[in-house]
Amino acid sequence: MTDASVRLTFEGGTVRVDAPRDLLETLPDVEYDPRTETGRTPGFRYATLRAALAEHDVEVEDRVLALSDLPALRSAYELREYQHEALDAWRDAGQRGVLELPTGSGKTVIALKAIEALSIPTLIVVPTIDLLDQWERELGTEFDVDLGRLGGGEQRVEPITVSTYDSAYLRADELGDRFELVIFDEVHHLGGEGFRDIGRLLAAPARLGLTATFERPDGAHEVVEELVGPVVYRLSAEDLAGDHLAAFDIKRIEVALTPEERERYEEFQGTFTDYLAQSGIQMRSGSDYREIVKRSGNDPAAREALLAKQRAREVMMNAEGKVEELAGILDRHRGDRVIVFTAYTDLVYRLSERFLIPAITHEVPKVQARRRILEKFRRGEYSRIVSSHVLDEGVDVPDANVAVILGGSGSEREFKQRLGRVLRPKAEGERAILYEIIAEETAEERVAERRRG
DNA sequence: ACTGACCGACAACCAGCGGACCCA
DNA sequence: TGGGTCAAGTTCTTGTCGGTCAG
Asked: Which one-letter DSSP state was computed for residue A16?
């Protein structure tokens, strides 16, 4: 017992545990691997494994992490009080956990301070190339070290590296031993079926997640919690409004469908409800909906019902009355900076033509063109833009003070992200406004309720 | 170097009120 | 007559992203 020895090494996203069989069996989450005749556990269990071994009176030869040298980092940045609290909460939780803070509250800065405080090799994982660039810029300004970059056509690893989720996913098994701290920006993405493997394969014991909305409707935040840790600090937009973020009002406006729209809506919606009645499905949650989706693979009636539901959704999301209402809003806010959000790209182009507003969708040819439009918006050459979902996340959108949602999903996340676009601190007394325009007597009233308007 | 086409991944997707059938 | 089960083997569409590869 006393002189047993244990050797830990990293192999393709797992920690290999060379130890006597009887000791292996006492270790949590360590499985016996008959091929190598050793114990084995996923990379993310490394920290708990070390803790468990510390309880035993054994000599541990730990060769898991292969870290490069990193000079002590220093940044001139001063954290605000709540940012300080957030960082402390994370450290108190054993350098594991998630910070849930609204868009514009300076999550990046907290992370930079965490990197500075620990000065250990760090991997930062982000969902988009845009964020890749932003992090690279911030890190470059703050720290005087070479930065690695994985994604956007480059694959360069340095002690401090920024990666996309996609690239990290492709290389996690091989990179898992190179970093002691991993930061997941927009950490809710880590709940995705494939992306969760990133968290699983990395051995980094220190883990920080950043997001504005931790909970996922599919429940996968529990996976994230296991891989990164629980939420250790949380503030909402309301908490910071009027102080570090702009004060804001949310105005809900209901508009009527035209008689033609009403007729089409009722017909499509009717097809859907008829199917529900006929199949006996109780529509209580998203899983009931998924049940219909599942059936639609083999059952033509289910498929027809789903298509009808989608057509009904299109009718209400694109209702003509919303366009008229928008005309009034644009008129009232002549001097303001306005972002208009829709659910469908078709409507984006219709609005763009009718109101002569630049459009941004995923189809906008080339990132360059999109960037040019945003740049002109930033400089004030444009005071309005129309977009679908493109600007929801991961794009550095210049500040606006009026947002108009013509069509959106029931997603709380989408709503917060859109709201976040108008919440940067404003001049004294100025308030941001978010308009939700909703088709009355349609399912959209419930949809808007779900996202908590 | 840039571009477009392709692929796979991810996310959202949520009625309003009484039927049909098989088997023990 | 009464009670239980109703459709399984992989699943709708739209919007958006990153990675890859050919030209």
From this structure: E
